[in-house]
Amino acid sequence: MKRVVVVNGPNLNLLGKREPHIYGTRSLEDLNQTVREKARSLGFDASLFQSNSEGDIIDFLQKEGPGSAGIVINPGALSHYSLALYDCLQALALPVVEVHLSNIHAREEFRSKSVTARAARGVITGLGFAGYGLALEFLAEQ
């Protein structure tokens, strides 16, 4: 079975508790279950990871990325400033889809710029959990 890497960045462990009017009331475990089921239906084994630490995310991607069919990543706030994460994604030379639960363009000005998006084939923003499913569908077609 092909493997796909799904990474969630800082504060996504607080899903369901953090600003539910923006991020909803479902938890990270709910998201992981949704992703696992969708990935399985597309013939993928999902390697899931969440961390609040930039270095841990980069280490995970460098370890799990090679040999995978691609990466779905919600870098959270790291998307706005992490050149190290951008460099990592570029170096892996895999199809990457960046996902954001909320519409980053409809929020604070600083959220509308993503430095990591330049390493992605596409960015899905504002579609909640459904964005992850769309990202997985894209990777399945690659």
Observed structural traits:
5 strands; Rossmann fold; globular
Descriptive overview:
The protein is an alpha/beta fold and 142 residues long. The protein has one domain (2-141): Rossmann fold (3-Layer(aba) Sandwich). The chain contains five helices and five strands. Helix 4 links the parallel strand 3 and strand 4. Helix 2 packs parallel to helix 5 (130-141) and helix 3 packs parallel to helix 4. The protein is globular and about 40 Å long. The mean pLDDT is 94.
Q: Mind sketching the topology for me?
A:
Elements: E1 2-8, H1 20-23, H2 28-41, E2 44-50, H3 54-64, E3 71-74, H4 83-92, E4 96-100, E5 122-125, H5 130-141
Parallel strand pairs: 1-2, 1-3, 3-4, 4-5
Helix pairs in contact: 2-5, 3-4
**Average pLDDT level:** 94
Name the CATH superfamily classification.
Dehydroquinase, class II
- Under CATH at level 1, the class stands as Alpha Beta
String of helices and strands: EHHEHEHEEH
Helix share, percent:
25-40%
The total of beta strands comes to 5
